[in-house]
Design a protein that fits this description.
The protein is an alpha+beta fold. The chain has a domain of 42 residues. It is built from one helix and five strands. Strand 3 and strand 4 form a beta hairpin.
């Protein structure tokens, strides 16, 4: 992998294992997460696996998820 940055096409993250929650609905309204090197994580829309990936630190992703669960 060359430079990893937010908004890059998810297809450029070759070789990563994308995971979808087991609680995801059957209609495809899900996000998928991949763990990247250097303590980074990537998130993509499961409906658009070739589209952009949001890349952030694993810590930031955990904070976002914890905040979302409170809503």
């Amino acid at each position: 992998m060359n430079e990893i940055r937010s908004g890059m096409p998810a297809t450029r993250l070759a070789g990563v294992a994308w995971r979808k929650s087991s609680a995801s609905g059957a209609v495809g309204n899900c996000v998928e997460v991949a763990w990247l090197p250097s303590e980074l994580a990537a998130v993509r829309n499961s409906r658009d696996p070739h589209g952009p990936a949001l890349v952030c630190s694993r810590t930031d992703l955990a904070t976002l998820m914890a905040s979302a669960k409170k809503w």
